[in-house]
């Protein structure tokens, strides 16, 4: 078994796949890349049992076979090479020998048959979208996912596909993001919850990419394929909370404000808030928004006034400033609107401008109870 | 520059307050403390001390030793009121003070010598307190907290003492080692077994030998014996935790009752948190069985101050902790890892009705007291509840003999 490949081409692909591999694995074989060779093609896979990603590379070969190569060792070596052809030769004594312009290196390999097989999707439904659109949808939602082990469904992003459009939802029970695309559609109505890790990988690979991504899915797995790459992952099992029910319908108090100005004020004021709870207070009266925070333990205090566009009753509402900054940061409009009803009901944050055709973003943030 | 630290201590504080309220108790043996069989003496008048009574002793034993003594249950609220009166006077007169317990104060008088003369100033302060409140008070004046405290104890009752700069060691030398704060019954026994009796002996010992016997504490004791203490006078004490506990008159195995008490305790402490704009991230349950074995179990939780989250968690902890099928002597709960903040509302678990209900309950409690409205399941526990805001910067109201 022997093949010749360009070092930088191989490194680029392996670095993408390497994101799947966990730092510590219970199964030692998962520290390896699976190399499956067939004439002219090399199929490389990496897996953490939940997610498997593979890529097909064009290489110069006429042999076939399958071996598992230590990932860390290989990546560390490849990183040091300038662009050059590398020859991989599998020796009989369970080592693979790499020859470069500089010399020779031998790595112990394991039998490819030991590597866990990727699941086959039976009876899948499918849809497709542009890579960058998917990356944007992930980027808009993933920051709002939770980390609570007791509520695994909230640690992922909820995909809702239908003929009318695609919806992506994430929440950690304190904040919620709903990202809708009305210009795209799926062949069938489907709902599933994608775990965070593969989404982060996809976001990294697909940002700015114009390639078409095909998404296939069934009850338990989803497969994303684009160009020469394929990612198959297990879905999070469980029922996603009924998020529609918690979005307040009647919001008579509407605030409209410049996003950067609002974000900067919240950031500045929150420096003076309690270091653990990051709590700030918004007071809105007339056309003035008053943002204040206090850390009683250290006698730190801040207050800012902003002019804004406000329709509704004067009100006071408390928020965790972390949530507000994360959300405002994630938007890229010039102006945002914050719709509220009562100090103990969710505030709805929406961009006023800067959206693509068919794109819709709704962000919910739960307040903290204020003692008056 | 040398520091000047004043230590003020109200003599037999609870007894003095009771005598102030009822002058018939003057000059008669008087005991304040729990009056049930389980009760302990919280304070005793000087008349009773000749019978061998001291605070912390079981009330039953004290009554046997001195049957003619008047026993009073005492009222923490009244004592706090008098303590606050004294605090007000001291606050007005000194630059920096620390209230270390209900009847003890430290004040830093450093630098005042030049203008007033620390000793005469302190004497005047003492006179003012006695005149305005009618409570006997003693003080000790020296260069640090430990020596001043020892001096106060030597000066008592109702007197004052000054230890001049440089005379700390000779002052401490002839005293019993028991007089050093930190040496309790246990350490005293350990040191007595080594043949130590007077502070002088500790002063003459090398510090390493003390470290060998008692570890880090040995070093602190050695320093204290030599009159060395650098702890500052801290004007404001931030509460690190709030807790409550209950010893039963009779050991119980009635789980329903225990749970009801835990619910009452949780409800009350959670209200204290909300009133003080605090959240807790660590809750603990404590059980003492009739064989005096004490167990605690704690749990880290996300920051909260909501009853409906805390109560089930406390009961869960209790379920895992109470596994002995033994009679229970004491139960208690504690909230720690406190931070300032308010409850973060949950999108899916909190309904508006529940939140409004909590708000309404708290409003009623703010107005009519913390026991005015409670859960029905907690109604069995009659006397759980505290009158005072635990977050006012003052030390917790602890019975005089209890360790904080």
UniProtKB/TrEMBL annotation, chain A:
Keywords: Cytoplasm, DNA replication, DNA-binding, DNA-directed DNA polymerase, Nucleotidyltransferase, Transferase. It comes from the Bacteria. Residues 246-352 form the DNA polymerase III beta sliding clamp C-terminal domain. GO terms for biological process: DNA strand elongation involved in DNA replication. InterPro entries: DNA_clamp_sf (IPR046938), DNA_polIII_beta (IPR001001), DNA_polIII_beta_C (IPR022635), DNA_polIII_beta_cen (IPR022637), DNA_polIII_beta_N (IPR022634). Residues 1-117 form the DNA polymerase III beta sliding clamp N-terminal domain. Pfam families: DNA_pol3_beta, DNA_pol3_beta_2, DNA_pol3_beta_3. GO terms for cellular component: cytoplasm; DNA polymerase III complex. GO terms for molecular function: 3'-5' exonuclease activity; DNA binding; DNA-directed DNA polymerase activity. Residues 132-242 form the DNA polymerase III beta sliding clamp central domain. It is found in: Cytoplasm. CDD domains: beta_clamp. Its main location: cytoplasm. Belongs to the beta sliding clamp family. Confers DNA tethering and processivity to DNA polymerases and other proteins. Acts as a clamp, forming a ring around DNA (a reaction catalyzed by the clamp-loading complex) which diffuses in an ATP-independent manner freely and bidirectionally along dsDNA. Initially characterized for its ability to contact the catalytic subunit of DNA polymerase III (Pol III), a complex, multichain enzyme responsible for most of the replicative synthesis in bacteria; Pol III exhibits 3'-5' exonuclease proofreading activity. Forms a ring-shaped head-to-tail homodimer around DNA. This is Beta sliding clamp. The lineage of its organism: Bacteria, Pseudomonadati, Bacteroidota, Flavobacteriia, Flavobacteriales.
TrEMBL record, chain B:
Residues 5-184 form the UmuC domain. Its main location: cytoplasm. It is found in: Cytoplasm. It comes from the Bacteria. GO terms for cellular component: cytosol. Keywords: Cytoplasm, DNA damage, DNA repair, DNA replication, DNA-binding, DNA-directed DNA polymerase, Magnesium, Metal-binding, Mutator protein, Nucleotidyltransferase, Transferase. The record marks 14 as: Substrate discrimination. One of its GO terms (biological process) is error-prone translesion synthesis. Its cofactor is Mg(2+). Poorly processive, error-prone DNA polymerase involved in untargeted mutagenesis. Copies undamaged DNA at stalled replication forks, which arise in vivo from mismatched or misaligned primer ends. These misaligned primers can be extended by PolIV. Exhibits no 3'-5' exonuclease (proofreading) activity. May be involved in translesional synthesis, in conjunction with the beta clamp from PolIII. PANTHER family: DNA POLYMERASE KAPPA, DNA REPAIR POLYMERASE UMUC / TRANSFERASE FAMILY MEMBER. Belongs to the DNA polymerase type-Y family. This is DNA polymerase IV. It comes from Leptobacterium flavescens. The gene is dinB.
